[in-house]
Each structure stands twice: as structure tokens, then as C-alpha cells.
Amino acid sequence: MHPVLGKLFARTKSIHDIEADATDGRRKLARHLTAFDLTMIGIGGIIGAGIFVLTGTAAATKAGPAVVLSFVFSGVGCAFAGFCYAELASTIPVAGSAYTYAYATLGEIIAWIIGWDLILEYVVASITVSIGWSGYLVKWLEGYGLMLPSAWTHGTFDGGIVNLPAVLLVVAITALLIRGIKASARATAVLVLIKLGVIVLFLVLGVPWVRPAHWSPFFPFGWSGVIAGAGVIFFAYIGFDAVTTTSEETRNPQRDLPIGILTSLVVCTVLYVLVALVLTGMVPFTELNHPAPVALALEKVGITWGMQLVSVGAVVGLASVVIVMMTGQPRVFFAMSRDGLLSPWIAKVHGRFHTPYRATLITGAVVALGAGTLSIQVAGEMTSIGTLFAFVVVCVGVIVLRRTRPDLRRGFKAPWNPFVPAAGALLCFTMMCGLEFATWVRFLGWMVVGLVIYVLYGRHYSHQKSEDLP
């Protein structure tokens, strides 16, 4: 290995320095969040419109009624990564999530790569979901006879002037996030409880119409279909990792972070399985390849207001997802800036609200610009490859930190080390390999841009820089 590159890998940030930054009064975030808040954030990030769409798609094209097992397998796969996130979050409870964990275990250059990767993940997700939210809002309002002009509900590059509802959503969320983490957590909790109520209402309405005959054959595509279905719906679980970006704002992070991460995963897995069971029991799985399969099922049994029910759940659900994604992104910016890898101007904390307001404003401006101008197809081209990459790094980080710092106090330990972390890393990397070649090209292109910025700026201004590094 080249000596300069070797030194960049050797640059790690000590746990002592990480904890010192978190307690620095000039850049200290307020600790307000409880285990309940974190659980709501986790559920808010995981459950979006996907529960109303992916369930039917996976059942019709991949697994049939056995899609319930696909959800279980996907949940187990996410649990491997979830255990690792829970361990590192309870050991290194500061802002930055996978970026900070990588800095403490795998070196500065890997930390930069994962931080740059997380920027892509959260920004693109926020843009995509904001555009989706606008679409569902328009459909919902149309149900009441209110027609919004197409030019103001489509982006500049999508045949319109600007997607005004998406921009207004982003502006409102940005203001909420600057106001304080507790205020945004409360708003998230309210939205989560509403969408959970919508899901429970669907289950209550649908159970009487379940016909066990629709579950036969249970394995129309065999076990291979179950596995393929798991690959499709794995992305329905993405979002729980945003919980860890709020580590520095959690009252008792060693205890509450593992509770928030793992509880949100369990709750969402149970809900996904129940929705899948009821949906495939109401309608033959062959009919569920539909943009709104849940609404379709309700309409087929005579509940004609089903579309409105689904629209309410989707509008509320997507809004909470945007809040969670836009909560995570500024904290990654904040952590990287505090370490010197980005301009220290970004790390300024609001004097009254104790939030990273400059990082939040930058995030809001970029997301609003993308949401107002792009089409959902363009925004969605950058898929969840970044999230899977972050999962791989976190799983490897657990193994490394267990070996290098066995003495650290861990509020939670991933079970069966190193099997669970290794299995999590292997599973996520395998899913990355299954993604399209074009996705890899875009991802690697983004990484190259990030490395150029690091070489020109980050490595010179890093607080961990070595004097003998050219």
C-alpha cells in the first residue's frame, strides 16, 4: 500500500476525542429524546407508502401468499444490521451514525467515504419521498373535487413549472427541524400514530373478508420466489438507521438507542406480515400487481372509500419519512464538519434551539431544489445501494471494535459475535451485488466526486491530520 494511503487508513478518531466533541459546549446538541421518541423515529423512517405498494407487488410477481415469509426473512436480514447499529450506537453515542462508527474503527478515509455515501442516501431519499408525497396529496385532494394545476404539482424537468406541494413540505420540515429535535420528534410521533391507526383500521376492515382459499397454493413460486420477494421488499425496512444519527440528542443513549432501533424493527415486521396475510387473503395474489393493491382489495369487497383510506395513510406516512431522513442528513454534515472534513462553518449550533441549523438549512435548500424540479423517476435512480453499503461498514465495524477495544463499555452487544455481524455484512453486500450495473456506475461516480473533495480539502483540514502527511 502507498505510504500516504496507509496513513489515511491509520487515521482513526479515538473514543475519547469523540466523547470530548459531544460535550463541547460550543457545539453541543441538546439531549431531549427518549426510547419512545427513538422508536417513533424508527417506525417513521421505515413505514411509508411501501407497505401499501410493495406487499402486493412482491406477492403477485415473486412469492404469492408466501410473501409473509419474505417479510420475515427481510426482517431477519435487517435485524443483523440492526444488532450492529445498536451495539455501536450504545458504545459511541454521538451524531454521525455510520460515519462516526467508521472513523473510530476503520480509519478516516473509510469514514469519509461512508459519510459522503450517507449524504447521498438521505438527500436522494428526501427528494424522492417528497415528490411521492406530493403525488399522493394531489390524488387525495382530487377525491374531494379539489384539482390542483398540473404545472404547479410537477417539477421543472417533469413537464411543470415547480412541484410546489413538495417544496412547501420541505420548507415546513426544515423550519420544524431548526426549531428543535423535541418538536420534530413530537411531530413524527403524531404522524406515526396516525398512520399506524390507518394500518390497524385496514386490518380490522379486511379480516372479515379474508378467504383462506386465496392462500392456496401458498408457495406458487417455490422457496426461490420467497427469497426473491425478500430482495424486493428488503428496502421497505430501510430507515431505522436514521435513529442513530440522533444519538447525541438522546437522554440515555446506552439504553434507549438499542430499544428504539430493535423495537421499531420488530413492530414494523409484525405489521408488514399482518398486512401481507390480510391482503393476500382478501384478493387472489395474481390480482395484486397494482399501484395501490390495498385500495384495490378494499374496493373489491365493497369498501369503496378504500382509496381515500390508503391516501391518508400514504400522505401521513410519507411526511414522517421525510422528517426522519431530513433529521439524519444535517447530523452527518454536522459530524463531518466538526471533524474538519467539511467547513467548520457548517457545524454552528443554534444558540437558542441547540440544533445544527446551518447544516439543516443546507439540507433543506438542496432537497427543496431537487423536489421542486426533478421527476420521481430521476430522483429514484440512485437506489438504496448507499444504505446497504452503510450496513456493510457498520457490521464490519462491530467486529473490528470488539478486537481493538474490548474494554469499552457497551450498553448493548450484538449476539453471537462475529457470526451476526459477518452474516449481516455478507447479506447486505450480496444484495448490493444484485443491483443493476447502472446503479453501481452512478454510485461509484458519486464516490469519485467525494474522494476528489477529500483529497483537495478534507485530508488537509482534518483534526486528525499527521504533520508528516504531504
Structure description:
With 470 residues, this protein is mostly helical. It is 67% helix and 0% strand. The chain contains 18 helices and no strands. The chain has helices at 3-10, 15-22, 35-46, 50-63, 67-91, 98-105, 108-142, 164-179, 181-206, 222-233, 253-282, 293-300, 306-338, 357-373, 376-379, 385-404, 419-433, 437-461. The protein is globular. The relative contact order is 0.20.
Layout: helices, strands, pairs:
Layout: H1 3-10, H2 15-22, H3 35-46, H4 50-63, H5 67-91, H6 98-105, H7 108-142, H8 164-179, H9 181-206, H10 222-233, H11 253-282, H12 293-300, H13 306-338, H14 357-373, H15 376-379, H16 385-404, H17 419-433, H18 437-461
Helix pairs in contact: 3-9, 3-11, 3-13, 4-10, 4-11, 5-10, 5-11, 5-16, 5-17, 6-7, 6-16, 7-8, 7-13, 7-14, 7-16, 7-18, 8-13, 8-14, 9-11, 9-13, 12-13, 13-14, 16-17
Q: Key terms for this structure?
A:
470 residues, 18 helices, 0% strand, globular
Biggest pleated-sheet summary = none
Quick one: how many beta strands? 0
Share of residues in helices? 55-70%
Mean pLDDT: 85
**Helical segment count:** 18
For this structure, the quaternary state is single chain
Q: Give the CA-based shape.
A: globular
Q: How much of the polypeptide forms β-strand, as a percent range?
A: under 5%
Distance between the termini: 16 Å
Low-pLDDT stretches are: none
Sketch the topology as an H/E string, one letter per element: HHHHHHHHHHHHHHHHHH
Radius of gyration: 22 Å
Structural class: mainly alpha
